[in-house]
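Workshop exercise sheet. Pairs work together: one partner reads the sequence aloud, the other fills in the structure field after running the prediction. Swap roles for the next sheet.
Pair: D.N. / O.F.
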Amino acid sequence: MNPGDLAPDFSLQDQSGTTLSLSALVANGPVVLFFYPVALSTGCTKETCHFRDLHGEFKKLGAQPIGISMDEVEKQSEFASLNNLDYPLLSDPDGEVAKAYGVKRGFDLLKTRRSTFVIGRDRRVIKVIKSEINMNKHADEALAVLSQQ
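Structure field:
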């Protein structure tokens, strides 16, 4: 996926079991779709909590962070509850969405590459952010990109 590409649409369940689709989400404004490897892990907790801490800034820009991993709905629910995450965490248990976005790994330990896609209302990718070690980079860069729109 590169800037300008049409982001693949999908429908997945969030941590409460509600089915959400990308096409419906972008109707409300830009989406910051971030893939993380494993719910409840140290790095993923740091990343998702940073998105939580900046949620108000995203909201001011009319954008919404959406987390996604291959964890089951129940684990996403536990993760959201333990960390007071106030945005959707989507469950992609078979990895089909991760595969469509080019972030699925071939081995199980870290199932997806830590990657973020800033997606506009037209479902076009505005920015792709990748970093496996800088957990704050994803939210910070996405916010910077959106503030320039």
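Discussion prompt: Helices lie at 22-26, 42-53, 55-60, 73-83, 96-100, 137-147. What would you look at next?
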